[in-house]
DNA sequence: CTTGACTCTATAGTTACTATAGGATTTATA
DNA sequence: TATAAATCCTATAGTAACTATAGAGTCAAG
């Protein structure tokens, strides 16, 4: 299939597919006579792997490492494990930050008093302190 | 004070300060004879306002809007309110995403089985599906 | 044989910074 | 006073993970 169909089947935009290829996340596909990219179901699986990783917020660089690891099936999976743990730590850190952030935003929202002038608005006051 | 001291007092890097100036988040400071930027305590307050907003993950564009609103003290603060609500919605959305993400990562981590080969690793398997 | 849909590469834009190069200026030391 | 070190200046490029555009080539249908 050509890139248009590949894009629809995978749910990735054409530009993103070409971008992933440039970044080495997808193998260079065969080309037609007219230099069009040609994909098969194996390529689709590759891309779906990448998409799944991205949906977990794993960076392109780490996905590249995972792909390399996948190609060494007999090695120990400890680095895979470490990568996931690290990703989990990142998520936990971000969640903690967001909780604090949410609390402050909520407090600000309630401090507004509503229907104030900007001068009297509790939000602006709290941002100014 | 010159930009070096201003940077230390505010906790913003020199480059970031110049960047904020270019983006219109800080007023253009007076200059010395030798063209060095000169700041006063008012400028410091401005920068602290920006920093506070940034710590709440408010975008530079929205901060610009807030600054404009601050300069119209007699207007209604409803847009300020809306902006904060919107920010809160963003945070909530992201938290929800992260919760789902965390759950999947945790499941993956436990699926590894540890000390496996990559071939047998539950993580890679789950990423492949 | 031409129109329209699709594809190609290369390049620039996005956000919020950070880092660098190559100068100019000021301050401290010899 | 000369010079070295510290600080400052502008302009430009790099970061992550895409998205968007320009300008050209390819292909199937009418």
Structural class of chain A: mainly alpha
Strand order of the largest sheet of chain A: 1-2
Largest sheet of chain A: 2 strands, antiparallel
Overall geometry of chain A comes to elongated
Biggest interface between chains: A-B, 49 and 49 residues
Low-confidence stretches of chain A: none
Counting DSSP H or I runs of 4 or more residues, the number of helices of chain A is 6
Instruction: Tell how many strands the DSSP assignment of chain A holds.
Output: 2
CATH class of the domain at 3-75 in chain A: Mainly Alpha
- Helix percent of chain A reads 55-70%
CATH topology of the domain at 3-75 in chain A: Multidrug-efflux Transporter Regulator, Chain: A, Domain 2
Terminal Cα span of chain A: 59 Å
Domain HTH merR-type (chains A, B): 1-69
Protein name (chains A, B): Cd(II)/Pb(II)-responsive transcriptional regulator
Keywords (chains A, B): DNA-binding
InterPro entries (chains A, B): CadR-PbrR, DNA-bd_dom_put_sf, MerR-type_HTH_dom, MerR_fam
Verbal overview:
Two copies of one chain form a homodimer. The model of chain A has no long low-confidence stretch (mean pLDDT 93). Chain A has a domain at 3-75: Multidrug-efflux Transporter Regulator, Chain: A, Domain 2 (Orthogonal Bundle), CATH 1.10.1660. In chain A, 65% of the residues lie in helices and 3% in strands. Chain A has helices spanning 3-10, 14-22, 41-55, 60-70, 78-111, 122-128, and strands at residues 30-31, 37-38. A two-stranded antiparallel ribbon of chain A has the order 1-2. Chain A has six helices and two strands, in the order ααββαααα. The first copy, chain A, has 129 residues and is mainly α. In chain A, helix 5 packs across helix 6. Chains A and B meet through helix 3, helix 4, helix 5 and helix 6 of A and helix 3, helix 4, helix 5 and helix 6 of B. The first copy, chain A, binds a DNA duplex (30 and 30 nucleotides) through residues 2-4, 13-16, 18-19, 23, 32-37, 54, 59-61. Chains A, B: Residues 1-69 form the HTH merR-type domain. Chains A, B: Pfam families: MerR_1 (PF13411). Chains A, B: Keywords: DNA-binding. Chains A, B: InterPro entries: CadR-PbrR (IPR011791), DNA-bd_dom_put_sf (IPR009061), MerR-type_HTH_dom (IPR000551), MerR_fam (IPR047057). Chains A, B: This is Cd(II)/Pb(II)-responsive transcriptional regulator.
């Amino acid at each position: 299939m050509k890139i248009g169909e590949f894009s629809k089947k995978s749910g990735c935009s054409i530009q993103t597919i070409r971008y992933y290829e440039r970044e080495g996340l997808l193998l260079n596909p065969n080309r037609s006579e007219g230099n069009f990219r040609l994909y098969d179901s194996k390529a689709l699986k590759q891309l779906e792997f990448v998409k799944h990783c991205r949906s977990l917020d794993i960076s392109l660089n780490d996905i590249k490492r995972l792909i390399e690891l996948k190609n060494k099936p007999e090695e120990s999976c400890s680095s895979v494990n470490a990568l996931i743990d690290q990703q989990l730590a990142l998520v936990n850190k971000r969640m903690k930050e967001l909780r604090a952030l949410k609390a402050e935003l909520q407090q600000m929202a309630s401090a507004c008093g509503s229907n104030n002038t900007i001068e009297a608005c509790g939000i602006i006051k709290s941002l100014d302190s």
